[in-house]
Every structure is written in C-alpha cells, then in structure tokens.
Write a structure and sequence with these properties.
By secondary structure, this protein is mainly alpha-helical. It has ten helices and no strands. Helix 4 packs antiparallel against helix 5 and helix 5 packs antiparallel against helix 9.
C-alpha cells in the first residue's frame, strides 16, 4: 500500500524520519547547552532552541541522564579510543602524560563533560558503566607507568579523579580570561606524579567508598 498523501497529492514522509530528525536536533542543542551550562542546563530551553515542545523532548529522552548520554556518546567514544591508543605508545611515561592531556583537554571548554566525569549517578546503569570503563583506562595507564618505574607507587585512581575536580574549578575561574591556564596546573601535577619526586604524603588517598560518596554528593 502506498504511503498516505498530503492534500497536495504528494506522499507524506514517513513519521519515523521526522522523529529521527527531531532526535538529532535535540542532541545537537543539548551538546551546545551542556557544554556552556553543565549537566544542569535547562531542558525547557533546549526544547525551545529546537522549536519543539518539552513533551516531545521527553518522548525521545525520558530522563536528563538519557539526554546527557546521547549528547556525550561521540565524545566519550573519542576519549576511549584516544586512551586506548596511549596504552599502545612505546614509552609508558609519555603514554601516561598523553592520557591525562587527552582527558583534561576534553574537560576544558565543556562543562557538561566535566560534570559527567566528575559525578556519579547511582540510579543510572549507563553512567555507572561509563565510569567503570573510565576507571579501567585510568588504572591501565597508571599501572603501566608505575610498573616501569616512572610514576610514584602511592598514586591511585582516586588521585586522578581529585585532579579532575581541581581542574574543573580552575576552568571555571579562568575560562574567560586565560582559557589554557589549566595546562600549567596539569603539568605541575604530572611532575608531582614522577617517581623521582616522591616524598611521604601527610594524608592517605580517598578510599573507593569515600570517592564514590563524594562523586554522588556532587551530583545532588
């Protein structure tokens, strides 16, 4: 049976194609809004930017997390691929440095990505899986550099996450006046990670439970 025709006699486009186009428009608007305003960007404003009702947005993305994950899926995939490439570098120290550069470069200029990697959302299996993959990549790059004697052995994954938090605050303070200032602080910390610079620290690292609770707290 041919598709129904408009009053003009021209066959109507399949509704599925319109729905897919609307979904793509919501994702594009969300990427811009989250990058500028963070994970708490107004969903109503995103819908207005697209020119559609908020109810239409919710039909495509029932929760904020659904929209966040759809908006950041390309960037997360790019980060995973880049991180995997750093593990293949011949020099473990350069791989570790390149991994951190990649993570913090993606954090810079995108408040939504910063929020996504800084916070935990326990009710979302998708974000929990994303964080587990992130930690696997942190651990793999960190352990490789430690095993070759380049990074001090008392550094753990939680120390990288706290550095992400610190960098987020630096970005917030300097993004409009010195948008590349974060790189100075990152490389100061990279130097501090060197095994040759090791000295005793006054406090132990966050435990896994403490780190998780802190990240959940940030999402509230």
């Amino acid at each position: 049976m041919p598709p129904p025709a408009e009053p003009s006699g021209v066959p109507a486009r399949p509704r599925r194609r319109d729905a897919q186009r609307n979904r793509e428009r919501f994702i594009a608007a969300a990427q811009a809004a989250f990058a500028e305003h963070g994970a708490d960007a107004s969903l109503e404003q995103i819908a207005r930017d697209v020119g559609l009702a908020i109810g239409t947005l919710y039909r495509h993305f029932p929760t904020r997390i659904d929209l966040l994950m759809a908006a950041f899926e390309p960037k997360l995939q790019e980060f995973v691929e880049t991180a995997e490439n750093t593990l293949a570098m011949d020099d473990p120290w350069e791989g570790f440095r390149a991994f951190l550069e990649s993570l913090f470069a993606m954090q810079a200029g995108d408040r939504g990505f910063n929020d996504l990697v800084s916070m935990r959302f326990p009710a979302s299996d998708r974000t929990e899986a994303m964080h587990e993959r992130l930690y696997q990549l942190i651990e793999a790059n960190l352990r490789r550099a430690q095993q070759h004697g380049h990074v001090r052995t008392d550094i753990i994954e939680a120390d990288i996450i706290t550095l992400v938090w610190a960098n987020g605050r630096i970005l917030e303070a300097t993004s409009h006046t010195a948008p590349h200032a974060w790189r100075r602080n990152l490389h100061l910390m990279i130097d501090a990670f060197r095994a040759a610079n090791r000295h005793e620290l006054p406090e132990p690292p966050l435990t896994g439970e403490q780190l998780y609770a802190a990240m959940v707290h940030l999402s509230r």
